[in-house]
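Hi again,

Forgot to attach this to my earlier email, sorry! This is the prediction with guanosine-5'-monophosphate bound. I've pasted everything inline since the attachment limit keeps bouncing my files.
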Amino acid sequence: MKGILFVLSGPSGTGKGTVCKEVLKRNKNIFLSVSATSRPIRDGETEGETYYYVSKEKFIDMIDNGEMLEYAVFNGNYYGTPKHAVYKLIESGRDVLLEIEPQGAAQVRKLFPEAELIFLLPPSMIELKQRLVSRGRESMDEIKNRLKAARWELLQADKYNTQIINDDLDDCVRSVIDYINTKHNQRQKIDDLLNEEI
Ligand code: 5GP
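Structure tokens for the complex follow:
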């Protein structure tokens, strides 16, 4: 059976990164796709693990050469999923997880209709704002922009295969893992039925 492409997306501040890390810790059968970005490396990040850090010029070359499965400009920087590694893993039967923002998720939906898209919802808009403020990475103006973007993104949520609320982290991670396992088992069952000798 081919692997399944899972996409974890949702508005900035819903906790995609944290949820993704926990899912990978608890489910060793899914592989994270390492994205490329033109943003500078931050403390505690590792080249080739957190991201592949490339210049804007190199990123544009990668787009022009058709190397990206999807990409988006976020906060003035390019972010994208290199195609090659994802296709290789899927072809070899591994499930792959992408942790990307919603513009990129919309591209994956078009290009890869069999992908399973998971939308993370914040418990409330107040909580979303509080999470953005307390992580202290963005200015108040930027936070306002992200909250505005979140409204557009929420309107896309029902185009995803499922929506999961990130209120309690542990509950949320468990729901994401349950969803991944259920989809994996369903596809495995269909594959077994199709390959059964009668
Ligand atoms: P950060 O700079 O905080 O690591 O990431 C900023 C945003 O970019 C996050 O919402 C993250 O999910 C998103 N992101 C990370 N990698 C990719 C990618 O490959 N494609 C897209 N479209 N978004 C990404």
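The chain has a mean pLDDT of 96. The pocket of guanosine-5'-monophosphate is lined by residues 12, 16, 35, 39, 70-72, 74, 79-81, 99-101, 103-104 (CB under 6 Å).

That should be everything now.

G.
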